[in-house]
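F.,

This is the one I mentioned.
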């Protein structure tokens, strides 16, 4: 049983769901290490016991905070724009660790951060912990099942996503009629979808997945209303992801909206290890 948890809180619903899930699981004290300009104070603050604002580049401050609380459990929750890592101001520790990385991507950057925090005495949990209700099992989640063309595109995209994820390129693939229109790099999900939809036109299929052996302490694929609304805007007809390896936020809003807009949503059995739901 974890008595005290610190959530490194980023954008969106993720940290809210994590805080509520941790409380339900019996965690008595929850701290939000709230990233400035990202964490939503109005809704998250009432769910936690302590609010500690931190800058995205203030890893040294977070490390010192953890060092003063030996054994503290810590989890990453909420989106952080990958490109912001190249525009934020870094403290001395962050600059040193970034300079040590010959390759810079989500895995290497956040992996290095986790090493520093664990060296300071923190126990970094998988970001899927306490997210039980937001991790779908395999199946078609919407009323409309993909048609034959969409199922074929989902298969093409699923195989391609494993390749780009294994090379630490990205998580998102856009396919139309069996042709790969876009793969994600550092630009993020929405920019990738926009690029792919521009090439493929209406009816594209989007797949989001993580590599075999993905470090579930950070950067777990996530999906919610903002992404769904963007899919509709881009004319995407189906969205698929790896079952039990994806954080599905705002399901009660997403699925009725997807049904209304005719967007099929599918959790695909990838054959890979499921993410952990409890510490």
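My design for it:
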């Amino acid at each position: 049983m974890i008595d005290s948890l610190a959530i490194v809180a980023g954008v969106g619903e993720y940290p809210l769901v994590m805080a509520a899930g941790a409380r339900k699981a019996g965690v008595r004290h929850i701290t939000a290490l709230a990233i400035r300009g990202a964490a939503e104070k109005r809704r998250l603050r009432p769910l936690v016991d302590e609010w500690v604002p931190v800058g995205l580049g203030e890893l040294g401050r977070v490390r010192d905070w953890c060092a003063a609380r030996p054994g503290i459990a810590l989890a990453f929750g909420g989106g952080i724009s990958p490109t912001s890592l190249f525009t934020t101001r870094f403290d001395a520790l962050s600059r040193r660790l970034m300079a040590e990385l010959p390759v810079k991507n989500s895995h290497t950057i956040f992996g290095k951060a986790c090493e520093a925090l664990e060296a300071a005495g923190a126990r970094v949990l998988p970001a899927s912990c306490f997210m039980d209700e937001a991790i779908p099992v395999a199946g078609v989640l919407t009323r409309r099942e993909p048609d034959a063309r969409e199922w074929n595109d989902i298969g093409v995209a699923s195989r391609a996503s494993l390749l780009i994820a294994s090379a630490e390129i990205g998580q998102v693939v856009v396919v139309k009629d069996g042709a790969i229109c876009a793969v994600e790099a550092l630009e993020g999900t929405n920019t990738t979808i926009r690029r792919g939809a521009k090439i493929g036109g209406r009816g594209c299929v989007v797949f989001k997945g993580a590599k075999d052996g993905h470090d579930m302490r950070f950067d777990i694929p996530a999906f919610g209303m903002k992404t769904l609304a963007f899919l509709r805007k881009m004319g995407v007809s189906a969205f698929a992801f790896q079952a039990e390896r994806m954080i599905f936020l705002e399901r009660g809003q997403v699925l009725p909206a997807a049904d209304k807009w005719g967007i099929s949503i599918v959790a695909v059995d990838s054959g890979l290890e499921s993410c952990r739901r409890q510490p």
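The chain has a mean pLDDT of 93.

Talk soon.
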